[in-house]
Amino acid sequence: MGFNISFEYPWGNFSKAQRKEIERELGNSGCMNNIVPVMMEAHSSGHGRKRKREELNGEIKEAECYRKLPRRTLGLTEPAPFADELVAAKAPYVRVSMEEAHRGTPEDRPVRVYADGIFDMFHSGHARALMQAKCLFPNTHLIVGVCSDDLTHKFKGFTVMNEDERYDAVSHCRYVDEVVRNAPWTLTPEFLAEHRIDFVAHDDIPYISAGSDDVYQHIKEAGMFAPTQRTEGISTSDIITRIVRDYDVYVRRNLQRGYTAKELNVSFINEKKYHLQEHVDKVKQKVRDVEEKSKEFVQKVEEKGIDLIQKWEEKSREFIGNFLQMFGPDGALKHMLKEGKGRMLQAISPRQSPSSSPVREERSPSPTFRLPFFTSSPFFSPPLHHSGAHCTSKDEED
């Protein structure tokens, strides 16, 4: 009987080896007619859950029922399935050695690594530990065991999150391929064989609990222990310590967000005290805001004052320089006065006569001006010639 998968389900989400495994496990069991609805239900819900309607005494009730899913790795598109929802493998359980695991195993035979814990208030330290476990070998299938509330409260203490919340938180971690609910506190050979575990990943610090110096000692002796490193500075105990240390702050925070005193298990008097503290803190915050604003204002004034002083100094230096350049001992005004004084002296002082007249070779006689009605002028007299031969007296001339 042929089986056409191209029109029934998007097989692109599965590898070739996963397809063969699905066909091998379900193809010969007469369940091929149910594989598509089972896989589609798994794809939509992530855990193979289906709402079942039951009619009891005339009332219709809805209940969750779980279907077995084919064993596969979902990757990053869906939450990791729970181990009790997966189809049990029929192949014999044969562990791989550490050398084979580091060298790399076939695609259809990943190295099955198990990591367990409480995972209360799931944080980055948990995620980093699981990432290290996932990256131990080239081809790894990571199985994470989460202990139940009863077991945890008995051996470790009270938790903040209940077991269902912790199961769900771990299943949504991107490195997890499978989640084991109600995991045992101490790993037994039967448990390791049931889940076909090759190696157990945990930090190398001895875990003292349940009357044992190290609950992983027998795993280490069997050569199945793969150590990881803790993330310093983050743990569930550290987070709880912060909450306990700042208890009043968180109570007031939740009261502001609408939680009642009854929900927070706070008495009436403490509730009023927290409200009063809140009002006092608001007043203090207003005072701090005013102080900050006043400091900013004073700082701005100081900065502007410094700028003004610097500008004033620059302008004063420029003014003094210009003043000295104009009125100083060697300033422009002195040169202008000297130049003006020289010009004034030249203007009011006559020119000096030359010390000697120029000598002329021939000197023309000066013309004689005569009145028109007189033959001789009483005002002008002819020049006297001082030659020795021609000398006449005044009487002769008359």
Which SSEs are present, and which pair or pack?
Layout: H1 16-27, H2 32-45, E1 49-56, E2 59-66, H3 98-103, E3 111-117, H4 124-134, E4 140-146, H5 149-155, H6 163-171, E5 178-181, H7 189-194, E6 199-203, H8 217-221, E7 225-228, H9 236-245, H10 247-256, H11 268-327, H12 332-348, H13 394-397
Parallel strand pairs: 3-4, 3-6, 4-5, 6-7
Antiparallel strand pairs: 1-2
InterPro entries: CCT, Cyt_trans-like, Pcy1-like, Rossmann-like_a/b/a_fold
Catalytic activity: phosphocholine + CTP + H(+) = CDP-choline + diphosphate
Pathway: Phospholipid metabolism; phosphatidylcholine biosynthesis; phosphatidylcholine from phosphocholine: step 1/2; Lipid metabolism
Q: Can you identify the CATH superfamily of the domain at 83-233? A: HUPs
Determine the structural class based on helices, strands and strand pairing.
alpha/beta
What's the N-to-C terminus distance? 184 Å
Unreliable stretches covering 5 or more consecutive residues = 1-13, 27-62, 373-381, 384-398
Could you say what the CATH architecture of the domain at 83-233 is?
3-Layer(aba) Sandwich
Shape: elongated
Strand order of the largest sheet: 5-4-3-6-7
Biased composition (Low complexity): 349-358, 365-386
Family: Belongs to the cytidylyltransferase family.
Enzyme class: transferase
EC number: 2.7.7.15
